[in-house]
Amino acid sequence: MIKQLLTGMALAVAALTAGAQAFPSRPVTIVVPFSPGGAADIMSRVLAERLNKRLGQPVIVENKPGGGTMIASEYVARAAADGHTLLLAASSLGIAPSLYAKVNYDPVKDFTPVSQVASVVHVLVVHPSLPAKNVGELVGWLKANPSKANYGSVGAGTSTHLEAELFNSVAGVKMQHIPYKGSAPALTDMVGGQLQVMFDAYASSGPFIKDGKVRLLAVTTAQRSKSLPDTPTVAESGLPGYEAMPWLGLVAPAKTPTPVVNKLYAELHEVLKEPEVQTRFRSLGLDIIGSKPEEFSSFLRGDIVKWAKVIKDSGAKAD
């Protein structure tokens, strides 16, 4: 009996090893939940080009935008669990179930994390007319002027909306939310003075900061950004306990074999060490993370809980 059990275990290990060695046996597709041309799409194509060479099979980027990233997420959740279909997941993967009335996937049960590839550098900016040179001064001004502050976001339920609502909660202030369809129209109104505060991706707000049209106060992450090392975090510049990190990562369908996931991670890890890749990521406003699968899994579970509370407390909803 013991001999048969050991033989069975040996055969199972051999099968897994053979599966990893055979992977990939055909082209690998990275499904991107955004339209072509944005930072996430460009990042995916940078990775695809490098992984193509390392995996020995074509790596294709397929854009499936729409539905608050849920269309692409559901598509990958239903794909074969063999590593040949991957999702470029964003923070919205775990946020959507708390935000939308109906979501046809479970962010934990339906996916296998490969790696949290990078964080998206987000910043807190204010209109230059505000008498606030740091976060502490901004909080003081908001408390003294409780009905005068409007903040813009790139849409209801987006990370820029939730980051501001987290700020409201931690700081004990109440800014009025005005949603827009993207950064460009929001920044236009910011420059025009219709908005006083905005959380935004540095990739889009950077030119306005450099031209002095908006004032940069802080980055939203727990630690300073490698892309903006001289810019303090929100927490260190006046609001301890605040942290928001929009991210991008690779996930596979649930039950993808561990050897396949480990191979994908190992090759991705090498790609992210390339100086050209690091330079390209910085130009896109991205800070490389490259976490291990188990680290990404733990982070994702915590992120889901964190933003579910922010959404519940703020009453944020998306259609």
Automatic annotation (TrEMBL):
The keyword S-adenosyl-L-methionine does not apply. Pfam families: TctC. Residues 1-22 form the signal peptide. Keywords: Signal. It comes from the Bacteria. Belongs to the UPF0065 (bug) family. This is Tripartite tricarboxylate transporter substrate binding protein. It comes from Acidovorax bellezanensis.
